Amino acid sequence: MKALKITLLAIVGLLLALLLGLAALLGTQTGSAWLLGRVPGLQVSGFEGRLGGAWQARRLSWAQDGTQLVVERPELRWSPACLAGLRLCLQRVAAERVALDLPPSGDSADSGPISLPTLKLPLSIELGEVAVGSFLLDGNQQVAELKLAAHWLADGLHIDSLTARGFGLDLALQGRLQPSGDWPLQAEATLGLPAPEGKPWKLAVQVGGELQQALTLKGRSSGYLDGSLEGQLQALAENLPARLLIRADGFKGAAGLPDTLTLNAIQLDASGDLKSGYLIRGGASLPGEGGAVALSLDGRVDAQGADIRQLRLDAGGEQRLELVGRLDWRESLAADATLDWKDFPWLRLYPLAEPPPVTLKTFKAEVHYQDQRYLGNFSAAASGPAGDFTLASPVSGDLVQLNLPSLQLRAGQGQAEGRVTLRFDNGVAWDTALQLSELNPAYWVAELPGSLAGPLRSQGSVRDERLALGVDLDVKGRLRGQPALFQARAEGEGQRWTLGNLDLRLGDNKVQGSGALDQRLQGRLDIALNRLGQLWPQLFGRLDGRLDLAGSLAAPQGRLNLKGQQIAYAEQRIAGLDLQANLDARQNGTLALVASGLRSGETDLGLFKANARGDQRRQQLELDLQGALLKLGLAFDGQLERGNWRGRLARGELSSGGQDWKLQQPARLERLADGRVNFGAHCWVSGAASLCGGEQRLLPEPRLRYTLRDFPLDSLKQWFPEDFAWQGKLNGDLQLDVPARGPSGVVSLDAGSGTLRLRDQGQWVDVGYDSLRLESRLAPNRVDTSLDFRGPKLGELRVQAQIDPRPASKPLSGEFSLAGLDLSLARPFVPMVEKLQGRLNGSGRLSGGLLAPRVDGRVTLSDGNIGGGELPTSFENLSLDARIAGESLELGGGWRSGRYGQGSLSGNLSWGDALNVALNIRGNRLPVVVDPYAQLEVEPDLKIGMAGQELAISGKVLVPRGDITIRQLPPSTVKVSDDAVIVGSEQPEQQPLKMKMDIDVEVGQDKLAFSGFGLSAELAGHLHIGDNLDTRGELNLNKGRYRAYGQRLTIRRARLFFAGPIDQPYLDIEAIRRVDDVVAGLRLTGSAEQPTSAVFSEPAMSQEQALSYLVLGRPMSTGEDSNMLGEAALALGLAGSAPLTGEIAKQLGIQDFQLDTEGTGNSTSVVASGNITDKLSLRYGVGVFEPANTIALRYQLTKRLYLEAASGLASSLDLFFKRDF
């Protein structure tokens, strides 16, 4: 018993000794340090604390079997008391830097799939805070700023939060992992990706499934790329099988790219494993301009490399761009690639304002890359303004050099051959040698046709901002039909240069010179461009000058003299040019420029002068423009110091439109070395008007502040129609900031209250308004615009709109309203009508985009009155109701016209993809006046439709009554032959308007009187007008009388047959005269364009006798009768030649030339008349039966008063007054 007690006491003592020893080791700093020193391979420095609570060290390192772990600034804080509750509580685990270096791993057989054990800890773990500044693996940083909070319970590991950065990525993760069975895992992660162009990009991913079996991934990308991701991954299976599907839409790689490079309907599918490879297939569509372009990808990636079976852009047909290649990264990077371009319309994807003159038809290239060297070749076929050409060469090089050892360019009969070498190892260096042979530059520049031959050699380099260059050019030939010579020899480096010979000649133009720089600078350039028109199309004039250089590079001297005469390009002209510039030994410079006779089209800009003087520190500049429309004078002065130019706008004067603006006082102007451009506060004043600006920043990110006060609106009269004037004052404010993120500020214009003046029948009518204001508030993501117009008699117009300027479509929203808006305001701007009245009412909403807005609402017109001017009819008491729904409009309304006429309109229009029209027009007794020929009543019942590009008109038109009176010969009695050409009057070929028509026209149901060309009758008949004005039907002239050769003839038969174009009827007309038992007449048959006339008689007799009965009323008996009949026939032939003689008259400056007959019997004469100017007309008459000639000149003094001087058998000077009744 005693022994047992001693034994128990011994065991207890031993346990206490062990506990006391363990406490001494873990609970003290000395013991903890001793214990750490016993761990093999472990070294600790700067240890503080105790292992049984909290400790930290300056550095901890461990190495064994080639593996080395280094932890800097490790820190551990935990609570041993938690062990009593079977919990391990780690309040803080931290390290500033963790570096792990592993030994090289040898090749080992595939270990197959990984099988995870079931982990069941005897106690739970709580991680309060884990923080690692950076983690490096084999010297490469993998993770930065790792932070973790988690706890391990019986049901698995719970990750409360995990954040880390690495490889430009930001990771935030939370989830749960159960380390048993198939290891179920549920996690959510957000990955911040690198932000292109500063635009945020995030990927949110949900992971679920079993780690031992398969994990399902679902994700959403937002920001830079909006898309979705889904897939499956067997993370522990052999060869890592996986499948991934990515979808996106509307992706554009950079904001500066055109919208045509937006990738739509993106789909990328990858599936497979590491052994057999991952197959990658994808596709997308680019909208293009003029047609979509399809993008497709087919490839395979494995552990050894990647195969690009096809990367293709397809524009339809044979138009494509295709890349095929192979990447191999087993030992070192190697690649083989083939590029095939065939008629690919790249301008669809990158449209330009002006397409380049050269079109690439085919391009094929092959390249092999290995060990940082590449070898390949390319060949291209293209088409230029002058035809097709080819370019081909082998290619070789490495990362610092590119060689084209045998470059061949072939264009028609010409070619260029040679070599090109480029180096990039130390700056840039080049060595080029080309031989030109009969090369025509028009293959690339259409304006330079010709043939050039000769050598072109150049070698040089740019290293450390030091240029070395050698050039030898000796090219001869012809350009633009003129002999051409281009010779230049130059060499040099740094501050030693020699220009041995420069000789450039084309036709009568030449530039010659030479120069050298070696301690001293000397050179001369002679410019003699005697005929600028030989250099370039639409360029004219002459330019001569000389440039002399002297001094040194530090203190250069020079003098430039240029003189030009009658210089013009297209519509821009300079009558005289004089430029004198000089820089002397003291570095004082002067410049004097005088350009006289400046014109732009028909606008005379006047005389421009510029004078400048100064040195490296102080400068002055004066600009002066004296023109009919604008007079401008500006003066600047300032000084340059340490890259900062500080000056002022010393003087400013501007005169235009009756206003004289002057700068009140000099304004500060500076351009600083950091790129900032500032403009100080200033004011421009003209009478009571002022335009004042505050402190302005012009560059970068402009900041503008301007205020306009009391600007007189009547000074804008030169820009308004003659019948419109505006009296009032305009005030405005501009506060605009344009930072990189987008503009912001306020722009407002306020015309306050004023008066609008309209001239009606020579009298001015004043109409006042109360308010007219336009305001826009700008923000980077929104622009708010409002327009407000109100007047007691003019009505109201209000518009409010909001625009988002960020998307390409510029989304728009807003509303508008009209209340009694007077339509007469628009009359001066519609010159084809004399009367325009009515009231507009309505309201609606605005939506869609700025370039394709959508309007929804209703607008009505009441009390409308439109007429006069060029309109053939009038619209009185017009009312219209338009219901607008997006891209369609429903229209209805009616009007009255004249005393009895009335009409109605109904239908709809749409203008989405194409214009579609469906309108019904009905009318009853509508008066139509074609001054001065016709006054008709028309009754239409028509349907007008348009679908796409086809216009369709169907229905019925009645012309029951009216009066047609023509007092002049028609423009053509006999058509000029189709092959006759009047020089200078050629007209461009016009395509006929395609119309689908089905119209029945009924003429003369009541009485339609016709009078003209000596004919009076009543017109009646029926016509059917088909497609493209194809007309079928017949018109009759009833109760007709005809006057010809001084006689009144009876119309026995007059019919017009239509069987084709409406302007080509077939004539069947007989006009007769009865003399006793003889009937003599004139028969007109055939096409109206080329009718055939014949004289006939009953009973039949000779043409001479028939004509005698027709003209004289008796048989021909004497020689005098024969002369009279010959002159009558001559007069008939002369009248038929009106078209040809009219065109000849135009070439002589006589407008509106006409042939006519007047008088009866023996006093009949043929008269030719025309206008020499708007007010001066000429008239010449020749007697048919009597030898009497008359010439008369008439001058229009006023609208109704004429002065006429006539000479013939008698001369006279008469004053005529015209009055219409």
* Gyration radius, in Å: 47 Å
Query: Biggest β-sheet: count, sense, barrel?
Result: 72 strands, mixed
Which structural class should the secondary elements be placed in?
Answer: mainly beta
Strand content is over 45%
Overall 3D shape? extended
Q: How many strands in all?
A: 81
Discrete helix count: 5
Summed over residues and divided by their number, the pLDDT gives a mean of: 83
Q: N- to C-terminal separation?
A: 160 Å
What portion of residues is helical? Answer: under 10%
Uncertain stretches of 5 or more adjacent residues? 1-5, 12-21, 968-993, 1130-1141
What secondary-structure arrangement, pairings included, does this model have?
Layout: H1 2-27, H2 29-37, E1 42-45, E2 48-49, E3 54-56, E4 59-64, E5 67-72, E6 75-79, E7 87-95, E8 97-101, E9 124-137, E10 140-153, E11 156-166, E12 169-177, E13 184-192, E14 201-210, E15 215-223, E16 227-233, E17 242-248, E18 264-273, E19 277-286, E20 293-301, E21 305-314, E22 320-328, E23 334-342, E24 359-370, E25 373-384, E26 387-398, E27 401-411, E28 414-423, E29 428-439, E30 450-463, E31 466-479, E32 482-493, E33 496-506, E34 509-518, E35 520-529, E36 539-551, E37 556-569, E38 572-583, E39 589-600, E40 603-614, E41 618-626, E42 631-641, E43 644-656, E44 659-663, E45 667-671, E46 677-679, E47 682-686, E48 689-693, E49 696-699, E50 703-712, E51 724-727, E52 729-737, E53 744-750, E54 754-760, E55 763-769, E56 771-779, E57 782-791, E58 795-803, E59 812-822, E60 835-848, E61 853-867, E62 875-886, E63 888-897, E64 901-911, E65 915-924, E66 926-930, E67 934-947, E68 950-966, E69 995-1012, E70 1015-1025, E71 1030-1044, E72 1047-1061, E73 1066-1075, E74 1078-1087, E75 1091-1098, H3 1103-1111, H4 1119-1136, H5 1138-1147, ...
Parallel strand pairs: 7-9, 8-9, 68-69
Antiparallel strand pairs: 1-4, 2-3, 3-6, 4-5, 5-8, 6-7, 9-10, 10-11, 11-12, 12-13, 13-14, 14-15, 15-16, 16-17, 17-18, 18-19, 19-20, 20-21, 21-22, 22-23, 23-24, 24-25, 25-26, 26-27, 27-28, 28-29, 29-30, 30-31, 31-32, 32-33, 33-34, 34-35, 35-36, 36-37, 37-38, 38-39, 39-40, 40-41, 41-42, 42-43, ...
Helix pairs in contact: 1-2
Pfam families: TamB
Keywords: Membrane, Transmembrane, Transmembrane helix
Subcellular location: Membrane
